[in-house]
Description:
This protein has 21 helices and eight strands. It is elongated, with a radius of gyration of 33 Å. Helices cover 44% and strands 7% of the residues. Helix 5 (140-157) links the parallel strand 3 and strand 4. InterPro entries: AAA+_ATPase, AAA_assoc_2, AAA_ATPase_RarA/MGS1/WRNIP1, ATPase_AAA_core, DNA_pol3_clamp-load_cplx_C, MgsA_C, P-loop_NTPase. Residues 1-69, 276-295 are annotated as: Disordered. Residues 101-222 form the AAA+ ATPase domain. Belongs to the AAA ATPase family. RarA/MGS1/WRNIP1 subfamily.
Amino acid sequence: MFPWRAAERGVGRGQARPSGTGATLDGVTGSLFDDLDPTGSGASGPREEAPPGRARRSRGRSPLAVRMRPRSLDEIVGQQHLLRPGSPLRVLAGEDRGPAGPSSIILWGPPGTGKTTLAHVIARGVSRKFVELSAITAGVKDVRKVMDEALTDRDLHGRTTVLFLDEIHRFTKAQQDALLPGVENQWVVLVAATTENPSFSVISPLLSRSLLLTLQPLQRADIAGLLERAVADPRGLNGEVELSAEAREHLLDLCGGDARKALTSLEAAAGVAFSELEQETDPEPDQEQADGGGATPVITREHAEEALDRAAVRYDKNGDQHYDVVSAFIKSIRGSDVDAAMHYLARMLEAGEDPRFIARRLIISASEDIGTADPTALQTAVAAADAVQLIGMPEGRIPLAQAVAHLATAPKSNAAYTALNEAVADVRAGRAGPVPLHLRDAHYPGAGQLGHGRDYVYSHDEPNGVAAQQYPPDELVGTDYYRPVDRGRERQIAQQLEVLRGIVRGR
């Protein structure tokens, strides 16, 4: 049972009205943020007061994260870089006046940073209609209907339509194209939210017609204050539980800058704490009433751990997190930080990344960043990939870890990779002269009459197995592409290469 006693009111004034375009709010005055009726009736008129012993067993109908949503921009924690006086968000919320009126915006940030909260605060503005669509369920027909209604509302009623589009990155190009006329002609003010990089997921014309606002993960102090507010606020836990310092630190460690996760975790931990207290005391109803509701439960670290089990890994295999974590993984190997590389390997594996993808990246890294400084690195990476195919997961993580340790601690050289890049650049620049006659194919009839293969020196007939003759085209004679570094195996290769080039070039 949850302990909070808040007398919660049912959705009444400004109630969301279902329509084909989602929930529409006219003149919102706070119904989305008001507390809900603990009886679930939502009926108006006088309400009976619950007995003291039973009041603490009232169960909120909405999650704690919803009940604690800010009702104004001033209540929002974090994102102060977007909330300065005169900022687009304050103009859009009706708190400041801009010279050109409100602008369409795209809110980009990780989960739990306040994108939906900002949209609902904006919904409280006067003389506006708030329409919410989800890119998961809405289609082009829904978008066009919103645009038609918005044009009518603007021209006939002088009312601005604010369209909140969640998960815009899930919209197809055609669906995003349908937004363009309304945004360009200001039939609607678009507030779009996405966790994916808009540069990859939103079409360029829509980006150019909107302001991109980047939300940052909340600071630890911001979320700590939010947790304390949720414990004491009548909309939250109403002061009927206490949060220990150890539990608060544990929640802060696991939320990863996600306010919604922090509040959801707090609510779950409070449930565990109160259930444990009930099991320990289990007073008779008359005794509980006489005691004024019994002892106040204290949320401990153990309660938080029991409620959460472990942190969920934030990782989208098709989005920014995928590319960011993989990039950090490879750069950690290149930078010889084996510990950081192990961390990113663990993040990918825990998030369900395909181990074969990881193995392929290791093979590339072995050649690109290590090369002949440690020729066995490529063998280890290929062996790890084969092992993953043979044994599967979860045991496949072990050879992957071995390969990561080998590659991260191996001497580094990109000499072979750089040599190829320089050679390719020359070819693309037109430096690809004729193949020397003595190197050309001479196996077919008539090739000898063309001079193909004439005067070719067979290397194995030479004393050192190296023949002094020209191999590159004339214009590339004397060009050095491969320049081994003074690390690992390439230190020895550099000495051998100096001798080989001297013989081949007749020096």
